[in-house]
Write a structure and sequence with these properties.
Layout lengths: L4 H9 L7 H12 L6 E8 L2 E7 L2 E5 L2 E6 L7 E2 L3 H15 L30 H5 L19 H7 L3 H7 L14 H15 L3 H13 L5 E2 L14 E3 L1 H12 L3 E2 L2 E2 L3 H8 L3 E3 L6 E3 L4 E7 L2 E10 L3 E6 L4 E7 L15 H14 L4
Length: 361
């Protein structure tokens, strides 16, 4: 489904670099024909206007449960997987703006006096900043097969106290020196929201993030054992509401004239704080945002993104005022594929079709 066709014609007639329908038709055909496999939804916004929106049927899951081939549409809830983490990061920023948390340099142990005995050695230096940038230095490995007892993500899931489990892990690198992807530290951030606000992270997000954005149709899956919302990967949203989240960051934390996030928080979240290593697509990491670079005709672009297993993307290009949302069903299981594999489909789509179509590449 294409939107604003008349606007396209007007802009093209005026010499704009915005895409024509032929470019989008080729891209749409490539997705339909499986050149980019199992894409469920694609939304492209520029200058706060929706330029393209389309949905495809495809195989899907809900938190690992096979749903078979289903139709996807504008109002369909979709697993966001680890895009959830970026929403948790937004909640931390809101809590700092409200004065509930002093700063990102607040020691994490100040929130968990009940675990004071775990505050030993290099762990004493752990702050919120280290959790937000995936640089805690804790010995975490969620890439191993689920049958491997060293898979810490599985270990956390099986524990009766996930926060204690994460904070009990040995620290193997000085905090802030090595990037290591960790769903466990995001669960700790979710628990910190509960500590400072008295609300679970889903309730906090509903009041201070979803309601201001007009998001009223969503699910945040709760762990059946812990009874708490999964901060690492539990959020289900429609693609249109994912676009709202991207636009919020693209516009400095402001939505329809209302400040939802502190502007400084947006800038810090989307900046590179630490480099990622051992990746076929190198880049960095912000505050629960990935950062990538891509070469455009007007120079090298730094491009932050929310990223979730299966090719869930919210890509934010503030320089050109572009936001791209992709939902898909290309899920991988820990241990059977490298995490990098899930990034290829949508990223190639962006570089091969979206940016050329926008006249930027």
């Amino acid at each position: 489904m294409k939107h604003f066709y008349f606007l396209f014609l007007l802009l093209v007639a005026c010499g704009s670099a915005d895409p024509g329908t032929d470019t989008f038709a080729k891209m749409e055909a490539d997705i339909t024909n499986g050149v980019y496999p199992n894409i469920h939804g694609l939304l492209i916004s520029r200058n706060d206007s929706l330029l393209y929106e389309h949905y495809w049927p495809g195989k899907d899951q809900m938190l690992g449960q096979d749903l078979g081939v289903i139709a996807h549409g504008k109002d369909s809830l979709h697993d966001t997987r680890s895009v959830t983490k970026s929403f948790v990061g937004a909640c931390i920023g809101i809590a700092i703006g409200q004065g509930l948390i002093k700063s990102v340099d607040t020691p994490i142990w100040s929130f968990f006096p009940e675990y004071a005995r775990l505050d030993t050695g290099m762990k004493k230096t752990l702050t919120l900043r280290h959790l937000l940038t995936m640089s805690s230095g804790l010995d975490w490995n969620e890439i191993l097969p689920s049958t491997d007892p060293k898979n810490t993500d599985v270990g956390m899931d099986r524990s009766s106290d996930p926060i204690k489990y994460v904070l009990s892990l040995p620290i193997i690198h000085p905090a802030g020196t090595v990037w290591n992807y960790s769903g466990g530290t995001t669960e700790v951030l979710g628990a910190i929201i509960r500590k400072v606000s008295g609300k679970s992270v889903d309730s906090f997000a509903r009041q201070y993030l979803f309601e201001p954005l007009g998001i009223d149709h969503w699910q945040w899956i709760r762990d059946p054992q812990w009874g708490t919302p999964s901060a690492a990967a539990g959020l289900r949203l429609s693609p249109g509401d994912l676009l709202k989240f991207g636009l919020l960051y693209a516009n400095g934390g402001v939505w329809k004239g209302r400040s939802v996030l502190p502007a400084g928080w947006v800038d810090s979240s989307l900046a590179t704080h630490i480099q990622r290593e051992s990746s076929d697509r190198p880049g960095g990491y912000g505050y629960l945002f990935w950062t990538f670079t891509t070469q455009l005709k007007d120079g090298l672009l730094s491009m932050p993104a929310c990223l979730g297993n299966g090719d869930q993307w919210v890509i934010i290009d503030r320089k050109h005022r572009v936001v791209v949302v992709v939902t898909a069903g290309n899920y991988v299981t820990a241990g059977n594929q490298n995490r990098r594999t899930e990034q290829k489909t949508a990223f190639n789509l962006l570089n091969d079709d979206v940016y050329p179509g926008l006249g930027l590449k």
